[in-house]
Amino acid sequence: MALNGKIAVVTGGAMGIGKAVTEILVRNGAQVALLDVNETEGKSLSEDLNKQYGQERTLFLSCNVESEEQIKAAFQKTAETFGGIDIICNNAGIVNESEWEKTVSINLMGVIRGTYLALEHMNKLTGGRGGVIVNTASMAGIGPLPSCPVYTATKHGVVGFTRAMAAASAVSGYGIRFNALCPGFVQTDLLSTISSKLGLFASLADVTQQIVDKIGILTVSEVAECLLELVTDETKSGEALMVFPKGKSYVTFPSFIQ
Length: 258
Ligand SMILES: NC(=O)C1=CN([C@@H]2O[C@H](COP(=O)(O)OP(=O)(O)OC[C@H]3O[C@@H](n4cnc5c(N)ncnc54)[C@H](O)[C@@H]3O)[C@@H](O)[C@H]2O)C=CC1
Ligand SMILES: CCCCCC(=O)/C=C/C=C\C=C\C=C\[C@@H](O)[C@@H](O)CCCC(=O)O
Hints:
Its EC number is 1.1.1.141, 1.1.1.232. This is 15-hydroxyprostaglandin dehydrogenase [NAD(+)]. Belongs to the short-chain dehydrogenases/reductases (SDR) family. One of its GO terms (cellular component) is cytoplasm. It is an enzyme of class 1 (oxidoreductase). The chain has 258 residues and is of the alpha/beta class. It has 8 helices and 8 strands. Helix 1 crosses helix 8, helix 3 (68-83) runs parallel beside helix 4 and helix 4 packs parallel to helix 5 (149-172). The longest helix has 24 residues, at 149-172. It starts with 6 loop residues before the first strand and ends in an 8-residue tail after the last strand. The structure holds 1,4-dihydronicotinamide adenine dinucleotide (NAI) and the ligand CCCCCC(=O)/C=C/C=C\C=C\C=C\[C@@H](O)[C@@H](O)CCCC(=O)O. Residues 11-12, 14-18, 36-38, 63-66, 91-94, 106, 136, 138, 183, 185-186, 188-191 line the site of 1,4-dihydronicotinamide adenine dinucleotide (NAI).
């Protein structure tokens, strides 16, 4: 899929991985709506990118992915402004084992909300033109992070939901590919503030640090390059792509049907 003329939405697009994703999509020709709760960073990124790549290449929309109403309004505004939606990156996420219900609401329910509302614009069965949805999960969506059980659960949920949606799309003919992006540790604010977010599991901070020491830390650009592959490679749907500092690898899941 070439990105020239394509229209993308990135949630949590103002900072960290979402910012790098927004930048790489714009650099490759897409128009991008970045949705975030951080208005200062979101507006500033959008202004910078429009100066660099031309007016109306990006649009910042204030949006909390916990609100169905706000996501619906943001998608509507994106479609009206740019003329449709082809790509959704459900990326917004937090770590907070103390406020664990909020973690589930943003990380898992936010992805489900974003996906169902995206279908209203993208599903070929209801007048959309198809496209691709990439959900940011994590390596913690494939294996456990002992210091973050709820975070781990949300990311396993994102991987399962994404794969099931890919299967539903293939069987029903939505014309939409669905993939999960599963990075290891990435140098962002989320990672640098982690020690205060572990709640009941604060005593396991050292265990997390040992895993960090073993597998290393990625840059946001390395992660964004992998997202670009999931967006542009039309053979990829129902995939979970793990990203490590040493390289990337598609997860091979067991098959239960002969
Ligand atoms: N940093 C890491 O080590 C890894 C992060 N991830 C995942 O990548 C995604 C992005 O994380 P980072 O860039 O590291 O975090 P970050 O904290 O650097 O950036 C997250 C962005 O999402 C926004 N956001 C937070 N809650 C929101 C909400 N309710 N609605 C809309 N926007 C919201 C923030 O304002 C911020 O701009 C998350 O889903 C995270 O779980 C996955 C693997 C590793
Ligand atoms: C601490 C919260 C970080 C949140 C960001 C995030 O999603 C990072 C994930 C990074 C890597 C996850 C790796 C999980 C690995 C485990 O499944 C397991 O393989 C590790 C076992 C470690 C051991 O030495 O036994």
